[in-house]
Amino acid sequence: MLPSSALYKTVLHTPHKRATRIDAYDIDGNVLVQDVPVIDGDVAANLTDRVTRNAAWTLSEEWYPRSSSDPFSQYVSVVRIRSGVEYGDGSLELFPVFTGRVLTAQRGATGEVSFTADDFAADVVGYPFEAPRTADRNSSVLAEIEALILEAIPQAVFGVHGVADGPVPELTWDEDRGQALDDLSSVVGGRWIADGSGVFTVQPLVYAPGTPVQDFFDGPGGLLSEADTESTRAGSANSITVVSERTDGSDPIRVTVRDTSPTSPTFFGGPFGRVSQIVKVQTPLTVAEAQRLARAYLQASVALTEQWSVDVVPDHTMEPGDTGRFRYRGLLADQIIDSLTYPLGTQRPMAMNTRGTVLVTDS
Fold first, then answer.
1. Are 36 and 163 in contact (CB under 8 A)?
2. pLDDT at site 357
3. Which class does domain 214-232+305-357 fall in?
């Protein structure tokens, strides 16, 4: 969750005016244009995608790029999108929801120009290794991740990583730079992302809801307008086996953990039955590391899970991976936000898809 003023959190529960600004820069940060008004658009952010954020927006016809040096040209432009609210005195409180290169520009029959863009992770994925690459065993995992990103984007900026560092295992990749970063991130139990401000970090994999950072509820003064909920056993397992290949050609490490609590609704061999999942990882793991990974997968899987799809008043401080508390028609659940869509320049709601263990009570 991004920091905000107390006033921002208060006005979300009252009628307010939304505001969005788009700025364009070159990759070195030189300003091309600032504060361009948006007609419409949205930013989609999905926690499970390598390219976490994609943007689409519409501008008036004078912004159609006619040369490679124009502010919104796909050859030069990096856009920063900020969205939030405009207060009664004309002041703005805006939050970075997207930073990345312009991908396409299309001028329609009515003159309006539609743009699309991907976040900086697309630049990284778009620069595969030109020759097979072996990881630097003398480096640390986080230093190696940063080095691979800097090769693709020398101007890359890094924030505070949310995982503990570790030694680099013996790994070799053919050409897929994105896979290399996935493998290295998995060693430290994380995923690599570019956030809304274009900063790269490695953040922990989140398997269960944490402390809610926002309460979305229906009724007067609430932020939640509509919700669909689904409770399912699909994807749940009470036995997890992790298989990790060995670099010396010997038999792979194979570790199995099970739900052995007789009071658990998914007790292995109880009424829930026996449901197993095999998790194969290419990254070499020790037995202890394989056990930790298997326990993490089991923790994510043993409880009956519930998914919500909701429409809420846009809160542009929310980000994928945050935990929200959702209350709708008598149901309450703390849920991890897997994906969300920030609306730009309109009165449309913000859509969220969430997951989490079932925490249902009477409201």
1. no
2. 62
3. mainly beta
| Sign, CA torsion 234/230/358/185 | positive
Long-range contacts of 146-152 (CB under 8 A, 24+ apart): 146/200, 148/124, 148/177, 148/180, 148/181, 148/184, 149/124, 149/181, 149/192, 149/200, 151/127, 151/177, 152/123, 152/124, 152/126, 152/127, 152/177
Give me the residue spans of the domains in the chain. Answer: 6-119, 124-204, 214-232+305-357, 239-300
Q: Structurally, what CATH architecture does the domain formed by 6-119 represent?
A: Roll (2.30)
By the 8 A CB rule, do 315 and 333 touch? no
- DSSP assignment letter at 62: G
CATH code linked to domain 124-204: 3.55.50.10
Dist. CA 141–CA 149, nearest whole Å: 12
Phi first, then psi, for residue 307 (nearest 5°) are -115, 140
Q: Kindly list the distances between the CA atom of residue 332 and the CA atoms of 136, 149, 326, 362, in Å, as whole numbers in the listed order.
A: 48, 41, 6, 7
Q: What is the pLDDT of residue 169?
A: 85
Confidence of residue 304 (pLDDT cuts 50, 70, 90): low
Kindly report, residue by residue over 162-209, the tens digit of the pLDDT: 999 989 988 899 999 999 999 999 888 899 999 999 999 999 987 778
Report the 3 state secondary structure along 183-247.
HHHHHCCEEEEECCCCEEEEEECCCCCCCCCEEEECCCCCCEEEEEEEEECCCCCCEEEEEECCC
pLDDT tens per residue, range 213-265? 999 999 999 999 999 999 888 888 999 999 988 766 778 899 999 999 888 88
Angle ∠(59,63,66) on CA atoms, nearest 5: 145
